[in-house]
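new request in #modeling-help
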Amino acid sequence: MKLGKVFGTVTLSIVYKGLENVPMVLVQPLDKNQEPKGSPIVAADSTRMAGPGELIYYESSREAALALDPWFVPVDDAVIGIVDDVHLLKNEVAE
Amino acid sequence: MIIGKVSGAMHSTINHTFYDERKTLVVDKLNPDGSLTGDYLIAIDTVGAGAGETVLVIDEGNSARQIVKEDNAPIRSIIIGIIDEVYVKI
């Protein structure tokens, strides 16, 4: 799992069956110090509560499909949860 | 499996039910000689690892689900051991 920041949402009208009511959010992957790293991805939101600006953690590949309810819908990345805070040893990065 | 160093903890209340009462740690990936690879991951702790400790991390879904004994758990990274020593023959 990695950290990510939601910075938008993606609304779909025509979509593969099983993904009809799955909320999709735009996520910018972050490194552990919450600096942007890598290109943005679209992730299915299993918590259904992640909004733009929130720090989240996401999982990819098969685990992303397992995170959703009904599970095993075809998704590549999924938001697993919303981060309250991250405490690191050297530089204390608190939300 | 990956050698890693626990660099801190992450707390979350709104998350997938599987992660409700689980400890999630931020782990830096290490090279065998202990230097940082620059990559990190967030893993579940099963052995009571704390910040600063060198740990062994499984980063593969099937083994992780076998450990937590749940077939549909959305988990891939799991800490399975605390490393005392790494001997590298150069």
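bot summary: Chain A has one domain: 2-82.
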